């Protein structure tokens, strides 16, 4: 045994090291298990979401914005909600900002590189305009230190209003730009209870996988001495964006470009309105360095530029390369706070 090979006075130290090593291995296995849940459940959820859209005759973009966006934002909700309960507003707010940056720079960049993403001319433009509005409002609330409780109430109400608005768009989509898609849906089998139950099972898998990944990742990162705010802006943001990344890749593989873009934009909107609203409602003000707000608005601005410039066209792959480079720049700024932001994390 290891304890026999050391002096009696060092047995306690060896035991402590073994316990820490065992804990780390447990968290690694938890991370792998959670990632598996995310991968399998995201794949299945995209498949069933298409069948649900077919049965309900709903526009694929609206399925992406509402169903996929809310479902894949639940890991962010779990992280930020837990952080708020624990009194860690830095982790909660950092996770929202970081996830939105990663969703655009990394997830959208990979989506553009993975397939031919064509930008819509109607609903896509309107949805991106909503993202610009809520992102700007979220920034101003924190820069001007406006009353957070009332702002949280407004944002939560806005999340309900946005869902209703998307439902109205779905009804219009039956007669408008998605007419051909809706006509093809009529030739498919009708929606069954099994489709709904299956989608709920897959959605539960996404939630469970996200929670497992977040819990294991946070514990591993804490042992490396990373602050919770920086953790939320970087490591946790990437982990909680895995569902968006996986559902986007699977949507691209199945040539559901509208669903993949709607998933990214809709997830960011719900991150701000729903999760941001809850965070502001139940937590105090938390300072976020200006450089992170810069990347937050820069990422949102990139979506506006891409959707306006390539309206009705396929986005060239070099745009995806630019987004990936911006992702690297963002993480580089987090790793060198003294040089990039002049603020010690």
From TrEMBL:
One of its GO terms (biological process) is intracellular calcium ion homeostasis. It is found in: Membrane. It comes from the Bacteria. GO terms for molecular function: calcium channel activity; calcium, potassium:sodium antiporter activity. The chain crosses the membrane at residues 27-46, 58-79, 91-114, 126-144, 150-170, 191-214, 220-240, 261-281, 293-311, 318-340. Residues 28-156, 197-326 form the Sodium/calcium exchanger membrane region domain. It is a multi-pass membrane protein. Keywords: Membrane, Transmembrane, Transmembrane helix. InterPro entries: K/Na/Ca-exchanger, NaCa_Exmemb, NCX_ion-bd_dom_sf, RhesusRHD. GO terms for cellular component: plasma membrane. The keyword Transmembrane applies. PANTHER family: INNER MEMBRANE PROTEIN YRBG, SODIUM/POTASSIUM/CALCIUM EXCHANGER. This is Sodium/calcium exchanger membrane region domain-containing protein. The lineage of its organism: Bacteria, Candidatus Gottesmaniibacteriota.
